[in-house]
């Protein structure tokens, strides 16, 4: 079925098989332009799925770009949401962005009237553009589902197909899945249910490229024989070469004829298809061309491999990069206009003094787990982002070389957070200390019931690496930005939680959580954040640290004095900033700003142990100052409400003013980490401004 006019029934556009082959190559080129402009994103899977995408959006599916909400349209749902760039390009080529203005969070930007259609896709992963790292159905026309948590889109497709049956509509539902996605148990629940309900209006496409982040699908988690498994569940299965357009079109035609059961098209593809340095390379799962625009592994090399040099000449590439630059300048101006202003620039490393090293807190977790893995009573589990969260240091204690003996105690579980959790609990039942980890949203959210009932209720020593916490995961967007874990973890009886402030403290937190009885969580970030502690900075599980600014120094950390809160005597400060995680260095910088700008003395409380909470230190800070600001890289109140509750129960004899700094009841967005800190009002400047509003 060609692209149609939903009102008249006339054909808007149609493509022959040969034209689809050509379009698929052009779409691959646009995809790589977008990824290179973003300097971020998923290369491998977007290239492997592109022939399928071209066929679906330009020939197979019944839809109308001029009427995206047409009730009788076919639904195309991307359960594998990380392949969003391929979807954006397909939507652009199909015409969904022809009349869409370039916008910042829905507000059209002046000066971009000439940027139409697929060209808008070069704004991939730019803050406010709508082209987020994972799809957001509220931002772009034609996007059926906000997705990114693997396995969930398939179930939504099932529901859409069931609704069509219920309402008597004859539209079809297509769902694009990955082969690694089949590690998730929810996939098999959906496969079972679709067959049970005889959803012959549903077609699942499996991008069978045989690779996922940690290796081949055979090495990480064996899902074969895939055809036999689907057939055993009651599906009609078609196997094709996912890069042969004739086979692709024939398969979709066959699927339309099947009655009484759903159809699965297993499309055997090559990850990174069309670009020689990307093909069948695991390392190109989630990164753009490593050499940028020029070089051996670059955008221009991609263009040559795809043989589209005439269409994507220097002039077109120059224009694409210029569009992105202009857009970013407009966004930067808007963000900077919202930043509180002081007498000078206090931003990180902007002056000759107060220099601060930057390091990812995930590195500290790696150092800690490397030390712990020396014990044969410690086991660890990977969930397909093993190296990204530094869990691979468990069996590579130097960060590079595999220790065979330690590797025996490491288990690859693939993309299955729930099973990983209960398997780890089994080891804990037998006396081991088990470390599990993944993106924070998945390892504390998708498996929450397993953490609650199996780990906490049984008091099993399952330790959770809550990785990439907060908005620091940046361009991946809301589906991967964990902003709720403090709330969902601390409400579980018996769970401990540490939110360390920098990479040094993360190492200490990892070692400490291993010694705490029962289950526990260490929440840490992905991107580099300020190193604000020293080797001699105290760290005691369950006890907060007091930090005081003592005067400018060459090194940021040396400008502060830190001690255990239990050892501190009040200096009659004007206010207290109570913080956890990466907000601690922001609180420190806020104290620096307030002292130099207004002579205000600030007590900073680093509450690295969020549960059990150091209530004594919190109440003392409130009682001594009467003005409290909480700071968290989290939904506001997750940490702040714990602090407020402690203060309210502290029987204070004086009133206390309290404000909370955090993300305010919204999901995250794609953008650069520091850009998002400013956008969501989480910087020292915002904390300092809040203090000035509170103080007389």
What about the largest sheet?
7 strands, mixed
Determine Rg (CA atoms, Å).
26 Å
Provide the spatial order of strands within the biggest beta sheet: 14-13-15-16-18-17-24
Shape: globular
Characteristic key phrases:
696 residues; alpha/beta; seven-stranded mixed β-sheet; six-stranded mixed β-sheet; 23 helices
Summarize the structure.
This protein is 36% helix and 17% strand.
Topology of this structure?
Elements lengths: L2 E2 L6 E3 L3 H22 L5 H5 L1 H11 L14 E4 L5 H11 L8 E2 L2 E2 L43 H16 L5 E6 L6 H12 L5 E7 L2 E2 L2 E2 H4 L5 H7 L3 E6 L3 H13 L5 E6 L30 H8 L7 H25 L19 E3 H12 L5 E5 L21 H4 L2 E3 L4 H13 L3 E7 H7 L1 H9 L5 E6 L17 H6 L5 E3 L4 H13 L4 E4 L4 E3 L14 E5 L10 E5 L10 E5 L3 H16 L3 E5 L2 E3 L3 H11 L1 E9 L4 H9 L8 E7 L9 H7 L4 H11 L2
Parallel strand pairs: 3-6, 6-7, 7-11, 10-11, 13-14, 13-15, 15-16, 16-18, 17-18, 22-23, 22-25, 25-26
Antiparallel strand pairs: 1-2, 4-5, 8-9, 12-19, 17-24, 20-21, 20-23
Helix pairs in contact: 1-3, 1-4, 1-10, 1-11, 3-4, 3-9, 5-6, 12-18, 14-16, 19-23
Question: Please, could you describe this protein's structure?
Answer:
With 696 residues, the protein is of the alpha/beta class. The model has no long low-confidence stretch (mean pLDDT 97). 36% of the residues lie in helices and 17% in strands. The chain has 23 helices and 26 strands. Helix 6 links the parallel strand 6 (173-178) and strand 7 (202-208).
